[in-house]
Specification:
This protein is an alpha+beta fold. The protein has eight helices and 20 strands. It folds into three domains: 141 residues, Probable tRNA modification gtpase trme, domain 1 (Gyrase A, domain 2); 65 residues, Alpha-Beta Plaits (2-Layer Sandwich), CATH 3.30.70; 80 residues, Aminomethyltransferase beta-barrel domains (Elongation Factor Tu (Ef-tu), domain 3, Beta Barrel). The protein is globular.
């Protein structure tokens, strides 16, 4: 049986189309994916992301244990800061990607993908045995994402703390509309905004307060459909599509998260070796030149003489029509020798060879 988030009834009141996703009943869309996408890019949207998982590390060894778990340098954080990082297996494959919150030197919170909660909890507990205490607190949190250029104005209008001056990738405790929250200036849309955690019982009240406060700013609730097109335009990877146990952070273009010389972490030796030997493949951004939408799993071929399809050399991991750009875009893995910007390739879209060009990512970046 799928789980509910605390906001299921709120979604139904807004006439959301509900689907099962990662074991939860979640809103796919309300007014429509294109409309919700445009609202987030130009005004502000509100997402329910309470399906995400929260795993807490506590004790004197929590910070060092967290550093060993992720590629990025957790020990460089100060209290109140957040970082994004993959968690790797010893062979460099990705267990999950997550946000790491430094609550204190002895208290570190991991926010992980919904589909990986149980796996991540087991992995983290196994790898940190005798180093710290590990608790799956996913049922103790609801999480809302307020995203878009008007997000700051909306939250500021009901918060009892200064949110306007918060730098990106920081968090603070506050009350919003009287609800106790933990607000972080993070998101998965390529826009400014906040991810706001609260107690599950308080989530419907917080949702209503944000919707009411956002009315003057054009707020709309937004679902999974818009979240996916927004993150893809911003070239933000989706676990299970663009990254997984068979891909490394270096192959996925996440080398900026890999701090090879900042302390020991699981997968370090494998990533050092991969970097020294050179990558065999890379995740690239594709814009479709011919008519057709590339989707996950579609084969990528070389373009031969006269435009004839050559050998299959890779595959698409994510693809959609970009509402912002008005063209079809995709991510996919190809060999490094064919990964240069400007290279023309062919994508097998249900038996039709559709021309695509490798472009520099991200597809969209806010001003």
């Amino acid at each position: 049986m799928p789980k509910n988030t605390p906001l299921l009834e709120s979604h139904r009141q807004h006439n959301a189309k509900i689907v099962e996703f990662a074991g939860f009943l979640m809103p796919l869309q309300y007014s429509g994916g294109m409309d919700e996408h445009a609202t987030v890019r130009t005004a502000v949207g509100l997402f329910d992301v309470s399906h995400m998982g929260e795993i807490l590390l506590t004790g004197p060894g929590a910070l060092k244990a967290a550093r060993r778990l992720v590629c990025n340098d957790v020990e460089a954080l100060h209290d109140g800061q957040v970082l994004y990082s993959p968690i790797c297996y010893p062979d460099g494959g990705i267990v999950d990607d997550c946000l790491v919150y430094r609550m204190a030197a002895d208290r570190v919170l991991f926010v992980v993908n919904a589909s990986n909660i149980e796996k991540d909890h087991a992995w983290i507990a196994e790898q940190t045995a005798d180093r710290c205490q590990v608790e799956n607190q996913s049922d103790d949190y609801a999480l809302l994402a307020l995203q878009g250029p008007r997000a700051v104005a909306v939250l500021a209008s009901i918060a009892d703390a200064d949110v306007d001056s918060m730098p990106s990738f920081t968090f603070r405790e506050l009350h919003a509309g009287g609800v106790a929250c933990l607000a972080s200036r993070t998101g998965y849309t390529g826009e400014d905004g906040f991810e706001i955690a609260c107690a599950p019982a308080d989530a419907p009240a917080l949702w209503s307060k944000l919707i009411a406060a956002g009315a003057a700013h054009g707020i709309k609730p937004a679902g999974l459909g818009a979240r996916d097109t927004l993150r893809l335009e911003a070239r933000l990877p989706l676990y299970g599509n663009d990254i997984d146990a068979t891909t490394s952070p270096l192959e996925a273009g996440l080398g900026w998260t890999v701090k090879l010389n900042a302390g020991e972490f699981i997968g370090q030796a494998a990533l050092q070796r991969q970097k020294a030997e050179g990558l065999k493949r890379k995740l690239v951004c594709l814009e479709m030149v011919s008519r057709g939408i590339a989707r996950h799993g579609h084969a990528i071929h070389l373009k031969g003489p006269g435009g004839a399809p050559g050998a299959a050399v890779g595959h698409v991991t994510s693809g959609t029509t970009s509402p912002t750009l008005g063209k079809a875009i995709a991510l996919g893995y190809v060999p490094v020798e064919h990964a240069k910007t400007g290279t023309r390739l062919l994508v097998d879209v249900r038996g039709k060879m559709v021309e695509a060009e490798i472009v520099k990512g991200p597809f969209y970046k806010r001003a």
